[in-house]
Amino acid sequence: MYHYTDFDAAFLKERNAQFRAQVERRIDGSLTEDEFKPLRLMNGLYLQLHAYMLRVAIPYGTLNSAQMEQLAMIADKWDKGYGHFTTRQNIQYNWPELRDVPDMLDALAEVNMHAIQTSGNTIRNVTADHFAGAAADEIADPRPVAELIRQWSTDHPEFQFLPRKFKVAVSGSPHDRAVIKAHDIGLQIVEQDGTRGYRVIVGGGLGRTPMIGKTLYDFVADADLMPTLEAIVSVYNLLGRRDNKYKARIKITVHENGIEDIRARVDARYKLIRPHFGGVDQQMLARITSDFAKPQFKTAPETAYHQARQHDPAFRSWSDTNLAEHAAPGYAIVSISLKAHGKTPGDASSRQMRIMAGLAKRYGHDELRISHEQNVILPHVHKEDLPSIYAALKAAGLGTANIGLISDIIACPGMDYCALATARSIPIAQEIATHFDALKLEHDIGPLKIKISGCINACGHHHVGHIGILGLDRAGVENYQITLGGDGTEDATIGERAGPGFAADDIIPAVERLVMAYLDLRNDPGETFLQTYRRLGLAPFKSALYPEAQANAA
Amino acid sequence: MSKPFSPKVVTANALLEGDVIYLTEAGWSRDLKDAEVLTDEAHADLRLIEASAQTGHVVGVYLADVDIEDGTPVPTHFREDFRATGPSNYAHGKQERAKQEQF
Question: Which of A112, A289, B25, B56 has the CB geometry, 3.0–4.6 Å to A144, for a possible disulfide?
Fold first, then answer.
């Protein structure tokens, strides 16, 4: 874990004191809302439908137990006893009062956390593979460089007023778990002739104009990365459109100017600024990297694990779905599902946060991760400890065995909270989960990612869902459009729109028809929904979705 | 002929709590049923300007359409319905308070 320096702590203290004074000036009337709004947004404070919302950054999704416990304390003291984990690995509090926010930020600072640049037209919280530092397929831990990018981008004087928000994700594995191709900049750690470097992808994004990122450079050496990033953002800062909010993201800049033009501009800018990077960034990276040293893994028997798998079907089912392969022998990566059937995707109560923190402390080298899929990860667990962990999780309502299955749904807050939403997302996710749980089909269906957004801005990543659902307002009624075949991995694909949308009452039966069609169409139980879709294309799924149109045509 | 003016209320969020509020004849209420229903366009514009001037207490002032049922205003659009009630996944916000008031 990164340890704050005195500089970091002093910076945060000063920033929080500034914001406290800004809040006071807003309350006493010295600042108007127009003056205050950009200041509160820079500090992660939104005004939503029913209340303020504080979005707290969890850089590259990494937390220790003390931080998780503090998040629980904040939820109890200043909110309603829970938090919502988001697709940018952040946590959102839905009910803070304006007067309390400076105290909440001070409480966060006590555990080296903040809400800076979780909003506004700035470089946002840097995300990373949630299995970073643990995954068996990893080339290198992406978090040290993610931390370097966080420090570089925080309060960067040139990049506080970009044309639009700017999102960076980093992966250290060939298998992409961080959706890097749907980011403004996606970085993938690669090796070339034994040297470590980065593949740099630009211009990806979801929202109203979804785009898959394009490779700007196949290989950038470690020492050249920061000047390269600075050159890219610099070019975008000048070239990005400020005349139209909907055309302001770098994906449009890249699309309109072409990747070759962007590359030429970045090359020119790079040449100009490269001499200013004298290697300090590399010294800092070395120090940061030492903070992320791997824990001391133990060698122990796995008897309890194998016995539990043999004798406890519930444990076996959970360990089949919720574990991933760890780089160290005898270890596993545990995904804790925040998707209990019928509950709100991504929500954890303060009690659940404390239980997860306790498990991390006792069994998990004090580490927790938040995934962009809105689950919590214990990255380093010895298999011998899994039965105890499972028992504790189950007792806390955290033992759902559904990672990667139909009920492991990403859902944005939608119109239940969000001021931008055009329809609700959460109730649709709840109904899909409970419906398929009741049918007892979930495990038979196998890997299937459903992602739901409550508006075209696509916070719920619906474009890269195997089944994507987009909630819209059609003449004053909630209406849900389906996209199919999306994929957020290294084979990133934007889903195809299946046809006209469905009313709220009709969307669950529509999803059921899709799934039943898949079960009929698949070659064998090993062929996933996405594979079947890729083999057969949209047509058979479309006929399942719209049987009436099919009947009329016949 | 211009479109007839549909009834409206002035709504906003409270500066300190962020809670949804409605302009009444005397001030502000957290309950839509207390809202002053505006049926005259010129008067509605005037009330909107008056409410917007109260920047020390309220944020994001606008006019929202309502229907009148049994003499009280009810939302015409589902977004306003959620604002008047609270989220659907937990009985938080106005629902929570309504529950407390029942006891």
Answer: A289
| Confidence (pTM) | 0.96
**B78 occurs within a structural domain:** yes
B1 domain-assigned: no
Nearest by Cα to A133 from A326, A282, A381, A311: A326
Residue of A nearest to B94 (CA): A50
B2 within a domain of the structure (yes/no): no
Chain mean pLDDT for chain B: 92
Q: Which residue of B has its CA nearest to A478?
A: B78
| B59 interfaces chain A, CB cutoff of 8 Å | yes
B26, pLDDT greater than 50: yes
Encode pLDDT of A467-517 as tens digits: 999 999 999 999 999 999 999 999 999 999 999 999 999 999 999 999 999
Chain B contact set for A426 (CB, 8 A): 87-89
Residue B96 lies in a domain: yes
**B84: containing domain:** 8-102
Nearest to A252 by CA among A243, A266, A240, A263: A240
Q: How many distinct structural domains can be found in chain B? A: 1
Contact criterion met (CB < 8 Å) for B16 and A97:
yes
Angstrom distances, CA of residue A164 to CA of A246, A262, B30 = 9, 17, 35
Place of tokens 């649709």: A428
